[in-house]
Amino acid sequence: MDKNHYDRPLITRIEAGMPGKFGLRSELPPTTHIDGQPVAELIKTYGSPLFVFSEQTIRSIYRKALKAFTTRYPKVQFAWSYKTNYLSSICNIFHQEGAWAEVVSGFEYEKALENGVDPRKIIFNGPGKTHEELVKATENGSLIHIDHLDELYTLIEVAESTERKPRVAIRINMDTGIYPMWDRFGFNYENGQAWDALNKIMYSGKLELMGLHTHIGTFIMTANAYAVAATKMVELARALKQKFNFQVKYIDMGGGFASRNTLKGSYLPGSDTNPSFDEYAEAISSALINSHFTPDDLPLLILETGRALIDEAGYILTSVIANKRLSAGRRATIVDAGVNLLFTSFWYQHQVTVAQGVSQYREDTTLYGPLCMNIDCIRESINLPVLNPGDHLVIHHTGAYNVTQWMQFITFRPNVILIDGTGETHLIREKEGRESVSGKELLPGHLKNIRE
Ligand SMILES: *Cc1c(COP(=O)(O)O)cnc(C)c1O
Asked: Which of 106, 141, 160, 420 could make a disulfide contact with 133, Cβ separation 3.0–4.6 Å?
């Protein structure tokens, strides 16, 4: 067993997140270890840059979120949003914790099946499902969330051709006080589209209406928007009860909870200002339990939380390539992880810490990636100690969307590892090579030779 790492005792002044005349304090202590594993060793073993996921963090955040809801509402089910991070190891941690799968494409649907998820516990969302995919999901008894009327009509045809009743919900968009309003997915509440779609389903007799779904947006900074949304969902459920004496089995409130990240241009750090799971849970469950539902017909509450469950569990380890001075004298540091690996750097001010003991001398620095592209900037301005080539940095809260939206561009995508609950490391996605990029290319005969 490794010896425990010794951290010397340190007294630091607690700043309540208030900016001083020099802006926000940003002197974060070095991150020398992740879950007990030395960053320098991880890089030596697996290379740089390196994506690292903490299984312990994933499980503990999941349990915290689940508890926030189950203490306030008796029937709660999470469904893991595949597009947020569909590495099978990550999905399976959530599935082991009890989460269903929430998918938005045929590829993700197949992936959930391959991961062993019960098809009846796969929620199939998204505006682009094909006829073939709808047939398969119907035959499997998966939950199909209808996005538009054309899909509704296709499903009626599918019901006829398969002689099965597709299990469906409709996606509903609505005004929750968050602008710009997301109205491109599903049926609108305020203008009556949603009620119209529900009537069409009820009168068709061909579809089995299971529930109501909404996903009001992403990184929603106010819990109250969910209270508004849940109230509108309840109104539709009440109308179904009144007109058809029909009870919905579930209300799916989608995802969109903010993670601990800080949005660019924010005055205060996200970890201080973003709502907690408790606040979101309070808003949603109060709206549901204070409604017409009696204890016996309380619907299952489904949540498709993505980024808030995984962001904090992901890190990118990177190494300093070089330092330079920009024309105006500003310090710039070039690291080996670019924005092609860090899609979220376009809207987050990612926290970056050094991974080793450093000099006391700090300077405002621009942090660039290795791409020969002007946009490849990880942080425009960050107060960092002076670093030497070969020093390591840790980019925090990178678990959501980066390993799905990353892009093969100029460089290869690196290794991804998982540190399990015992501190053991596992390679969960191998780094790419030339074959992964060029392997699918075909060269016409007349272009095989470049010399006549
Ligand atoms: C992307 C998505 C989610 C997850 O959203 P987060 O903002 O990451 O929580 C949930 N449901 C649907 C339908 C989605 O498209």
From this structure: 106
